[in-house]
């Protein structure tokens, strides 16, 4: 049988960006990833009957309403809830709380009168039951399946007819028709496409849990993020209770929303007033402490920036930021030395955003600079003072 032309001319595919290559190279010419090319599998040509083109004005909008998840912060991120037939990809580092969040979402959907199928391809049924018991999610209409094959998952969906399907995780399920190992580029691509097709055909809201790489990006081919409707990331410092649910992509609403949760022993709880949580333990009358108003999505937050300066013990002083851009800190220290005559050449500078929050916007320039000046001179700012502003290389404060 002759090999399809596309497979002959492009026998290799990048596992990161899915761009085909005519020969193997060590570095992808599209995304510059190293050792990401894998051999493409030859498939027969697909013949799709042509559909009827219609004028945009004649199309009838889908009347199915958005289904609330039952968790206020999750609904804030998702534009009110999950859309029937939509596919959402949830990513996050190990231990950040992805499985806890999905269990709580499943329980909330069941309590609202729905039926949920939870597919756990990573943990045993007894392990999942222990989590459900701890979170108060032992419910009759919350069904658990431990099958890792997509064909078996589809069979469960046919039998149970759930309102919500949760797959944990998309990197561990596999297609029996594909000879690749679970987690390989071909398997992840094939599983994602099959699950998306089933979700669209059935009007089934689907939530896929995904792994992340060591640099924090979602594991697997870039196609995985393209085929789903929504991509959300659960982030947070495991040494802090705060968790942030950030929307990266959303076809049904804004893609810059953020939900805030507090991790407790009995699960994730929505945080209605995060500023109070960030400033609850703030010490008054301490030099080097400044409050900054910042935006997470469309939500304003008040966070504390702290700076500490000590005499350098080494020849080259340290600049150690946490939750801040290291290059921005170096730039501001140079501006302070040049424009404010502040000698920091033999001083170690430590700066942090309390609570594990990441602040990268230029509006943090002025509060960070004032925190360093306050820590260096010992002069305190008022406890009710809030600072915001961008600092230019000339030492001027710019509006934001």
TrEMBL record:
One of its GO terms (molecular function) is ATP-dependent DNA damage sensor activity. One of its GO terms (biological process) is recombinational repair. Residues 63-212 form the RecA family profile domain. The keyword Zinc-finger applies. SMART domains: AAA (SM00382). GO terms for cellular component: cytosol. Keywords: ATP-binding, DNA damage, DNA repair, DNA-binding, Hydrolase, Metal-binding, Nucleotide-binding, Stress response, Zinc, Zinc-finger. InterPro entries: AAA+_ATPase, DNA_repair_RadA, P-loop_NTPase, RecA_ATP-bd, Ribosomal_Su5_D2-typ_SF, Ribsml_uS5_D2-typ_fold_subgr, Rubredoxin_2. The keyword Cell cycle does not apply. It holds the Pfam family Zn_ribbon_LapB. PANTHER family: DNA REPAIR PROTEIN RADA, DNA REPAIR PROTEIN RADA-LIKE PROTEIN. NCBIfam families: sms (TIGR00416). This is RecA family profile 1 domain-containing protein.
């Amino acid at each position: 049988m002759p090999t399809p032309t596309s497979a002959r001319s492009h026998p290799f595919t990048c596992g990161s960006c899915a761009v085909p290559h005519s020969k193997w190279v060590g570095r992808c010419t599209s995304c510059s990833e190293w050792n990401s090319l894998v051999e493409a599998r030859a498939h027969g040509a697909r013949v799709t009957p042509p559909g009827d083109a219609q004028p945009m004005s004649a199309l009838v909008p889908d009347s199915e309403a958005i289904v609330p998840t039952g968790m206020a912060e999750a609904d804030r991120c998702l534009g009110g809830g999950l859309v029937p037939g939509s596919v959402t990809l949830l990513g996050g580092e190990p231990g950040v709380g992805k499985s806890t969040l999905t269990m709580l979402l499943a329980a909330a959907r069941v309590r609202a009168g729905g039926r949920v199928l939870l597919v756990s391809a990573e943990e045993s049924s007894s392990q999942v039951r222990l989590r459900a018991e701890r979170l108060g999610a032992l419910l009759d209409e919350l069904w658990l399946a431990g099958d890792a094959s997509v064909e078996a998952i589809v069979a469960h969906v046919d039998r149970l007819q759930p309102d919500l399907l949760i797959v944990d995780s998309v990197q561990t399920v596999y297609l029996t028709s594909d000879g690749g190992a679970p987690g390989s580029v071909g398997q992840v691509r094939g599983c994602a496409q099959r699950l998306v097709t089933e979700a669209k055909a059935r009007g089934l809201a689907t939530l896929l849990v995904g792994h992340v790489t060591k640099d924090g990006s979602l594991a697997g081919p870039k196609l995985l993020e393209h085929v789903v409707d929504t991509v959300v990331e659960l982030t947070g410092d495991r040494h802090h209770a705060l968790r942030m649910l950030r929307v990266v992509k959303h076809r049904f609403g804004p893609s810059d929303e953020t939900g805030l949760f507090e991790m407790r022993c009995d699960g994730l709880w929505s945080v209605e007033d995060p500023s109070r949580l960030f400033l609850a333990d703030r010490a008054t009358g301490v030099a080097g402490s400044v409050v900054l108003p910042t935006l997470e999505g469309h939500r304003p937050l008040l966070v504390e920036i702290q700076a500490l300066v000590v005499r350098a013990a080494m020849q080259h002083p340290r600049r150690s930021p946490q939750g801040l851009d290291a290059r921005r800190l170096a730039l501001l220290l140079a501006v302070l030395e040049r424009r404010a005559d502040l000698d920091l050449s033999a001083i170690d500078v430590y700066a942090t955003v309390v609570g594990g929050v990441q602040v990268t916007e230029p509006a943090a320039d002025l509060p960070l600079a004032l925190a360093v000046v306050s820590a260096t001179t010992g002069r305190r700012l008022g406890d009710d003072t809030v600072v915001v502003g961008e600092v230019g290389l000339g030492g001027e404060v710019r509006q934001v």
